[in-house]
Design goal:
Layout: H1 5-13, H2 15-35, H3 51-56, H4 61-71, E1 75-79, E2 87-91, H5 94-103, H6 113-117, H7 130-145, H8 147-175, E3 179-180, H9 181-198, H10 213-230, H11 233-242, H12 245-270, H13 300-329, H14 332-347, H15 358-361, H16 365-377, E4 383-387, E5 392-393, E6 399-400, E7 405-409, H17 410-413, H18 417-420, E8 433-435, E9 441-443, H19 464-481, E10 482-486, E11 507-512
Parallel strand pairs: 2-7
Antiparallel strand pairs: 1-2, 3-11, 4-7, 5-6, 8-9, 10-11
The structure holds protoporphyrin IX containing FE.
The site of protoporphyrin IX containing FE has 22 residues, from helix 7, helix 13 and helix 19.
Organism: Leersia perrieri
Transmembrane segments: 12-31
Family: Belongs to the cytochrome P450 family.
């Protein structure tokens, strides 16, 4: 190989300084690495910050973050490359959480970034703060608490379980081959979402197993939002402009969801659809606020609001339900206790197989304990994100500066030994149950700043009751009538996304139960 004169000059005339520099760099890096005595806290390297440690641990990111927080006393500052938006104060300290989400709520909005990260939902409740958020929240709270809306949602759930879920599960028993339970539950969740939001049944839970394009599109929104959060903003914005890579997938997903939503709205306005019951759309369809002042056409905000409703209902349920079924299937003693609680209800029913309804199960202590315990270990939103408006000092003594980003590891909070005990890794619904002293028992109260899967403070979930009323009858009907055997639990792991979904689903085999009572 021929050297240029410059290279020759460097190599032959100044070898010593070059060798020293070449030696100094790895030496510096080794010293930096050694200085970091705690193996759970990633080393901060020049130029790239803690990014290498983050990337190396991406496959078990939530466990890694939880361990890092424990190792650092529940609070740690994570710094990525200087040009990236990766500079976060991260916490799993319940007192800090209470301060951020409740006591000093106004100082910790979601921030302007949210409208960019979740651009398909820009301006809707998930992405906005202050008065606009309050206005939308009041409205949704009103809709979700109307008795006719509640009863319509419960009716949809009852019908879906009896007419679609049970026949489908029996079919799977007869086939005798393993199938992906995550996929099957994803279908019932999407059917119920579209029924509750638009009053129409997409029939995804049917024997021909139609493609789940809408659910795929919803998943893409959340996966790409995570990607956007980890990249320097100029990078993903350039990709968006060029319509390449993840950004192309995002644009396709957004178009699909918008086209579906626009069609549902247009059909309702034209009187072309026949809603299956009362639905969320019926509370908005005649509101002039959602129409263009001049043309009377539905506004873009109307579309985004209803894409957002699909996200708000579908995403958490598509996470909570499969993890609950998985946890129960892996813990036969919990299944026995769950069935035991159902015996008196089942005794009042004559159908075969027995179908449980929301009214039967939503108040039952063990059914709820099983769900909350699963949400503790697998919270739908494993990380919550807030922005700091004005300088502040947290109860832990850490000072935050205006403009900083705070991340809360909800996943880590569900694994705090101080709160949950030494056996915090175990799935044990009994930890949620306390004795009333008269032979009966009740659900233990854990304040929401310690148990955060439904969020805490003024922005907490508006659909908790609906979630319990929907999930408990599905799970009760499944486990009462069938034995569920997980085929390979080692393949079960969370996917890298903003929401805690399963990466590979979970394969099961079903057996029909007999002589239940
Ligand atoms: C097990 C199921 C569910 C879980 C674990 C859950 C969890 C959550 C969480 C963590 C948030 C806060 C999200 C954030 O701002 O970062 C939230 C907000 C919300 N949830 Fe749920 N959710 C569930 C089901 C539902 C259902 C079924 C509905 C509607 C019927 C619903 C409606 C909402 C709404 C409207 C908000 C926005 C609240 C606000 O920003 O003020 N959720 N939920």
């Amino acid at each position: 190989m021929a050297f240029t004169s410059m290279q020759e000059q460097l190599l032959y005339t100044k070898p010593l300084p070059i060798v020293l520099v070449l030696l100094a760099i790895p030496l510096y890096l080794i010293i930096q690495h050694k200085k970091n005595k705690n193996p759970y806290i990633p080393t901060e390297w020049p130029l790239v910050g803690m990014l290498p440690g983050m990337i190396a641990n991406r496959h078990h990111f939530h466990d890694f973050a939880a361990a890092m927080l424990v190792a650092s006393g529940h609070n740690v500052e994570v710094r990525g490359p200087p040009a990236s938006s990766m500079r976060f104060f991260t916490t799993s300290d319940p007192e800090n959480v209470r301060h951020i989400f409740t006591t000093n709520f106004d100082n910790y909005p979601k921030g302007e970034d949210f409208n960019e990260l979740f651009s398909a939902l820009a301006g809707t409740i998930i992405a906005v703060d202050s008065d606009e958020w309050r206005r939308q929240r009041t409205r949704i709270h009103y809709v979700l608490t109307r008795p006719e809306m509640v009863s319509s949602m419960e009716q949809s759930c009852r019908d879906k379980v009896a007419d679609c879920l049970v026949p489908m599960l029996e079919r799977m028993v007869n086939k005798g081959t393993p199938f992906d339970m995550d996929d099957l539950l994803g279908r019932i969740v999407m059917d119920l979402t579209v029924m509750n939001v638009f009053g129409m049944d997409p029939c995804l839970l049917s024997p021909d197993m139609p493609p789940m394009r809408l659910t795929g599109a919803l998943d893409t929104l959340m996966q790409v939002a995570l990607f956007r959060q980890c990249m320097p903003a100029f990078c993903w914005k350039l990709m968006k402009r060029l319509n390449v890579g993840h950004e192309r997938r995002y644009a396709d997903a957004e178009s699909l969801l918008r086209a579906f939503t626009e069609e549902r709205i247009a059909r309702r306005i034209a009187g072309d659809d026949e809603p299956t019951g009362v639905d969320m759309l019926s509370y908005y369809i005649d509101d002039p606020e959602y129409r263009d002042d001049v043309t009377g056409e539905p506004t873009d905000f109307f579309t985004r609001t209803f894409v957002n409703f699909m996200v708000a209902l579908r995403d958490p349920m598509s996470s909570a339900l499969p993890w609950l079924v998985y946890n129960l299937a892996m813990h036969p003693r919990a299944v026995s206790a769950l069935r035991e609680e159902l015996v008196p209800v089942a005794a009042r029913k004559s159908s075969e197989p027995i179908v449980f309804e929301p009214q039967d199960t939503k108040h039952l202590v063990y059914q709820r304990a099983a769900l909350f315990e699963s949400l503790r270990l697998y919270p739908m939103s494993p990380i919550e994100r807030k922005q700091v408006v004005a300088d502040d000092v947290l109860p832990s003594g850490h000072a935050l500066r205006a403009g900083e980003t705070v991340l809360v590891s909800v996943y880590g909070m569900g694994r705090l030994e101080d709160v949950w005990g030494k056996d915090y890794r175990e799935y044990r619904p009994e930890r949620w149950i306390t004795d009333n002293g008269d032979g009966s028992c009740k659900l233990r109260h854990v304040p929401s700043y310690k148990f955060m899967p439904f969020n805490t403070g003024p922005r907490s979930c508006l659909g908790k009751k609906v979630a319990v009323a929907t999930i408990t009858p599905v799970v009760a009907t499944l486990f009462w009538n069938f034995d569920v055997e997980v085929m390979d639990s080692r393949a079960v792991e969370p996917k890298l996304s903003i929401i805690m979904q399963m990466k590979n689903g979970f394969m099961v085999k079903l057996k029909k139960r007999v002589h239940q009572i």
